[in-house]
C-alpha cells in the first residue's frame, strides 16, 4: 500500500499530509499547456444547535477542506462547492457556512443541495450566492451548474403545513414522505438553449448535487428526469458529470457521459456503527445498510483525484484509514473499472454481522 507522500508524488501533486475531504480535478488535454485544475468541496451539512453552537464534526470537516485547498500546489484555477452547505437550510447555518467558505483564496462557484433549498425554497441562498443554475466557460471547457434537487409542485407547495416540516421531510435520506429529485422542465429548456451555443467538440462539465442517474430510489440517489438530461448531453463528444449528495464513491459511464461522485466533508453513507453510539445530530436512518468494509468507519472520506481526458475518467482515491484505489476507463470493455476490486473474486462482500 502506497503511503500518502508517495501517492501525491506519483499524482504529480504536492500538498499537506493527511486525509482531506475534497476532490481535486485535473482537466487533461492533448497539449499539456492547456491543462488546468480545480478543487471540488461538497456536503458539509453545517448544523446549528443553539446560539453560536454548531455541530463540531461538520464544522471541522469544512474548515479543514478550506485550509488545505488554500495550500494546494499546483494551485487550482477555482473551487466548486457541490451543495448541502447547510443541514436544515436556516439562516444561521448558511451564514456560518458562507463565513467558512469566505476563507478560500480562489473564486468559488456554488451549487445547491436539498438541505440548502427546502426551508425557504432557496430564497436566502440566492441572497448569499446568486443564481440557482448558470453556466460559464473556462479555458475552452463549458461548465454547467444545475439545481437538480427540485421536485413536483404538489409536493413542494401543497403537502406540508409548514416550511420547517417540508425541510425535515426532505432531509431524511430514506423517508417515504420524501419525493424524488428532478431538474425540471424549465431548467431543461434553459440547458437546451445554453448548449445550443456550444460546439459538440467542446468538453462539458456538469455540476449537479444529485446524480443525473437513477441509482437507488430508496435513498433518493435518484434524479427523476435523468433520461431527459442524458439525452441533452448525449450529442457532445466529452461530458463529465460531478455530483455530491451520495457521500460515497460511485462511478459510471453512459456513452460519452462520465459520472463520478465527490465525497463529503461531513460523514459517509451509510453511517459507521460508532456513529450510533453518541448523540451526533445525524438524521435518523430507518433502513440499516451494510457497509462494504465495516472495519473502516470512514471509508468514503479522503482524497479523490480525477483526471478527465476525452470523457474518460481516471479516479485515484487515497482514503482515510483505508486502501488506496484507482478507478480508470478500460478501453477493452468500454467502461470505468476498479483496478483492485472489479473482479468478482476480489470484491468485499457485505458483512452480515454489521
TrEMBL record:
<dbReference type="InterPro" id="IPR006311">
    <property type="entry name" value="TAT_signal"/>
</dbReference>
<protein>
    <submittedName>
        <fullName>Metallophosphoesterase</fullName>
    </submittedName>
</protein>
<dbReference type="InterPro" id="IPR004843">
    <property type="entry name" value="Calcineurin-like_PHP"/>
</dbReference>
<dbReference type="Pfam" id="PF00149">
    <property type="entry name" value="Metallophos"/>
</dbReference>
<feature type="domain" description="Calcineurin-like phosphoesterase">
    <location>
        <begin position="37"/>
        <end position="248"/>
    </location>
</feature>
<dbReference type="InterPro" id="IPR029052">
    <property type="entry name" value="Metallo-depent_PP-like"/>
</dbReference>
<dbReference type="GO" id="GO:0016787">
    <property type="term" value="F:hydrolase activity"/>
</dbReference>
<dbReference type="InterPro" id="IPR051918">
    <property type="entry name" value="STPP_CPPED1"/>
</dbReference>
